[in-house]
Amino acid sequence: MSMTPVHVVGGGLAGSEATWQLAQAGVPVVLHEMRPVRGTDAHHTDQLAELVCSNSFRADDWTGNAVGLLHAEMRKLGSIIMACGDAHQVPAGGALAVDREGFSRAVTERLQAHPLVTIAREEIAGLPPQDWDSVILATGPLTSPALADAILKLTGEDQLSFFDAIAPIVHFESIDMDVAWRQSRYDKEGPGGDAAAYINCPMDQAQYEAFIDALLSSPKSEFKDWEHVPYFDGCLPIEVMAERGRETLRHGPMKPVGLTNAHRPEDKPYAVVQLRQDNALGTLWNMVGFQTKLKHGAQTEVFRMIPGLEKAVFARLGGLHRNTFINSPRLLDDTLRLKAQPRLRFAGQVTGVEGYVESAAVGLLAGRFAAAERLGRAAVPPPATTAMGGLIGHITGGHLEGGKGSFQPMNINYGLIPPIAPPKRDEEGLRLGAKEKTRIKKRLVGERALADIDAWLAGARALAAE
Question: What pLDDT score does 13 carry?
């Protein structure tokens, strides 16, 4: 007898990853994606796993960064998102950034070619049909209104929402490289070995102050129906950061540290705007940390105040869209099933994780959990000592102690993983400084996590072999 398929609703990073994990486990899956039948405010194509904001998967070093550790765990678990990201990386210093078009095209083609995957281009308006006994809802921050309303009615919860802003993209040939220069912060090499992965545009104090004045006074896009919705701190528009203090940007995305002006090495910039390569050809570069809700006409005027970008030609201007997540600690069990209706699982950003990689990681776990159930095996969450386990702990209630606190979106960080006490002295008996202890502690956490994810994976394989 043929196996009943699992249904995945949403073809973003989480839905694509969940679909891949199910199919690779031998479970047939139908992936429902509403684009291009119904578009969204942020997407531009009908490709699966389209990146709508940055093209960066952030730091790729598992020994010293929590998101790099998440990368490493996902690679061990056969992630399609990491495989396609690695295959389409572009220079980005210590980060893993990708050619966004090549990346999404690769994910789409691999899923289309899989014999156990059926892609249905349709909107699921409302809750999925009752005869779908296993469903993963990976509809992300742009969940269709009909489905969002149905989820609210089912759970009795209020929907939590916040704004996400999108950064502009500039054509390389329009950047004045007699003013700007190529350098990664502290000359740090990334996965591709490039220590000059960013384009840097310097500002002196007078230029910075004029730029801040323009940001604060220029017209912004406002959405009156959404005015009660807060911004997520990890994706604040630059003008909102400027409103919090004139020096905020200079200590955030425009910080000048770790950089030396190649044209005028004796001059220390007061602030620096960085651009990161956005496609494999190197023809498009995005403005790092420059999410914005400035009106389009104002964007071109204000951003051309930046030295080196006076004649910038924009391939895409910034924008604003709403993000949505559910009260996962109250609504979901530890395998991401909806307590009120266990046939429904949630995955990705809608569960209350923030970031591309985190969303894909939760999709990976949802796919594995659903596959285990369909194959008659136990769905076992990953150990809490791993980055994957830390994410599951956060979205299913691990952030709450004694029932206190409110649930908010979270990137992966070491605070979600149990710590390890580093040695107090080095091999020669000398007392370690605070920085060295932190470096060692992070590496030890990473080594333990990778060993534990290996053991978890081995346990899953043993169950499959029985």
Answer: 97
For the chain, how many helices (H) and strands (E)? Answer: 12, 17
* Domains identified in the chain and CATH numbers: 6-159+326-415 (3.50.50.60), 165-322 (2.40.30.260)
Map tokens 């031998």 to a residue. 26
Q: What is the pLDDT of residues 296-344, one digit of tens each?
A: 999 999 999 999 999 999 988 887 766 677 888 888 999 999 998 999 9
As a whole-number percent, the residues of the chain with pLDDT over 90 amount to: 61
pLDDT of res. 84: 98
What Rg do the C-alpha atoms of the chain give, in angstroms?
23
Residue 299, H or E segment? helix 296-303
Q: Are 312 and 303 in contact (CB under 8 A)?
A: yes
CA dist list (Å): 185 to 124, 236, 309, 442: 45, 22, 20, 21
In sequence order, the β-bridge partners of residue 285 are 170, 277
How far apart, in Å, are the Cα atoms of 434 and each of 65, 422, 431, 437?
17, 10, 10, 5
Return mean pLDDT, the chain: 88
- Dihedral angle computed from the Cα positions of residues 153, 155, 161 and 164, in that order, rounded to the nearest 10 degrees: -100
pLDDT in tens, 69-89: 999 999 999 999 999 999 999
Residue-wise pLDDT for 7-19, tens only, equals: 999 999 999 999 9
Structural tokens at position 282: 């190197």
- Is the CB of residue 383 less than 8 Å from the CB of residue 389? yes
Pick from 66, 61, 52: nearest CA to 13: 52
Helix (H, G, I), strand (E, B) or coil at 346: strand
Instruction: Give the torsion through C-alpha atoms of 127, 130, 132, 137, to 10 deg.
Output: 20
- CA angle (417, 59, 73) in 5-degree steps: 50
% helix / strand / coil in the chain, to the nearest 5?
40, 20, 45
Nearest CA to 326 out of 135, 147, 163, 158 is that of: 158
CA atoms of 415 and 438, how far apart (whole Å): 13
> Exposed, middle or buried: residue 153 (CB in 10 Å: 0-12, 13-18, 19+)?
exposed
